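Action item from last week, closing it out:
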Amino acid sequence: MMEEKKGNSEGEIPTECKKEVKSFLKKRTANINQDPALAKACKEDAGKFCKDLAVSTEPGKVITCLMDKKQDLMPKCKKMIVKRQMDAANTIDADAPLLEDCKEDLDTICSDVLEKRRQCLVDNRARVSWTCQSRLFKENAERSDDWRLSARLFQSCYNDKMRFCKDVEAGGSRVKDCLEDNREKSGFSSVCKEQVDKMIQARAQNFMLDHDLKTGCKEDIEKLCQYEKDIAKDLQTDDASVINCLQDFREELLTSSCKKQVHKTIQRDAADIRFNAPLLNACIDDRATFCKDVPPGDARVIRCLQDNRASLSFSCRATLFDQEVMMAESIDFQVPLKKACEAVLQKHCADVDHTHGLAIECLLDHTDDEATSTECKREIKHLQLKSSEDYRLNYRLQRACELDVDQLCPDACDKFSYDVCGGKVYQCLSDKESEIQSQVCKKELFRYQQQETKDYQLDKPLADSCKDDVKKFCSDIPKGDDFGRVHECLYDHIEELTDQCRVQEQKIQKLKAKDVRLQPGVMQACSEEISLVCKGIQPGNGRILDCLIANLESSDYSPACQEKTKKILAKQEKDFSLNYQLATSCRKNAKELCADKQGKGHRDAAVLNCLVENEPSLDDTCSSQVSKLLRNALWAYRPGAMLTSACDADANACKSQLKRPGKIGKIGLCLTQKMLNGKDLNADCKKLVVLAAPSESKAIFEENLTKSDIMEKLASFQKAAVEMTSNGLKLTGWVAFAGIGALSILLVAAAYFLYQRYNGNKRPYTMVMKQGDV
């Protein structure tokens, strides 16, 4: 009958004819024997499934029984039953059970409605009797598999079905699913989209109206959500408890078909608040207050609620956070992000699983690709900002670090709380990184650290503490992926920062000192230099940074990389804690010998100068690191540097004698030559030069060589240096001094020998060869 209704008709059907048709339909639907075609087609099935109902006086009892068993009927009977259901969907007069259960409601609520009486009942669902409500729901559930059994959907979407789903066979919810999948496409009618959205919203309210979920999760519902199912069955009305239960047990689902369907329900939840029953119900008032003008779809309302999180009611805020945690699991649940970054996902992440945060991780790895669009980068930044608010919104880190968080950071955040923790757990894990047991947790934490050192906004405690400082000192730096420029700006003003901001920025600087990969500006400026001069060196524990500093005078360095490396060294000369290897090796000595220099002394070289003064009492590893830092500092000498200020006067004298005093190594070389030539140097400067000498000098000196032995070894070292340079090998640092000046490491030993004789001090110094020499 519905198909016929799509055609054009001439004139109006007489009222008497309409009455006759209604009377006929009522008789036919009340008794199967009044419907010869149906009775003939379903004779065998009626005898098989509905035998005991043959004598029932209840209207339409046998036909209702056959409808309940529709999936088990023979093809010819099933076909006729579908036709009768279509008739019932089109006119209430062909629906005897509904007429019986809703008779009083039709007479009272819909008495003045002549045509669309079923729709009147639906529109007044809250007012009709419980019996009528139950019948309406039961029929909707029974007809959920076939789009033709929904009069409004059929009439509104017929043309769209023929255009987008022409070859899709009716039944099994196939056409409904096809319409849902195509509703955002160009050319899809707004009238149909409205009906499809209503259909999805009804599905979200009760699993019985979602044919795919109901059939695909039958086994899982029985084993995991039977209690919720029984409640929904008894209520026979809207209740999302079964869907919520399946989502809560999404990691324990038994069947792949159910996993697929539950994944789809979460996708709907994430896209539109109308399809997210828990959030829709919890945030009715909040949505009206803060997001009344925000249209649904594309997660717009959900984002609006996120932006107003602090002002939301507790129930809305708690439900929102619970949904956000779930949505963090898959790129499919990040609707605007997936839409904006579709090209990147197809190019780089096509074979990556969308679940367990894997596709999101892949996408983050390609954030800085030239081909990544501005819109995609903007959505990635939005995701990072939200996940920085709470570790539970970072799916992979939360799963990887669950046990470590429990053990190391139990008080940082109540994991059962529905309020964001403000980055406290991230910071706790970073502070206690050495105690983390899980290597996977360390890996995920490092990924987060890379993000927060690149963009200060992703370090929530710092961003909150430094809000005014950033505005005051770094307002000219654009927000976003500034490649760590805001952090560098804050450190440039470290003594002018507010106390709380200074503490947070100092933590970040210490973190960056451990690994060059946490210094985005250095990685950007020195990527080629790292691959060339630091090839084979594993990152971490400050090794690459040490390598870059050790080869600072290399001709392979670009001006940008040389400038970045100089700045790293300048920090190390001032701040004991920003030289990872030295800080690690000297932690004990610094605590014992320089306790009164801690605090601000980290940043004015007080701790470092204290270690230099107490060099005879240092452990060998600490002494080695102090020597290396002094060597680097003298080689890349800077006037006024706190660590090498004792040599400023002598260095100034050197400047007047050098053609290019600003070149790396020139001042250091001049100071060493002066000492070797017996020229006067400030006693404190001499001490720095000797302490900076390579450790090999000590080994030579301890042989107690005579003058002739020294000259003999000098000749052999000089010859070796000449051969090395003639073979095209490059010498750098202090070894470069030996090669270029036809001197050798022996000269440093001789200088040390002379210094001991001059000073009358026989205590041997521990000296370390500068790394990255050849």
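Closing note: The two ends are 90 Å apart (CA to CA).
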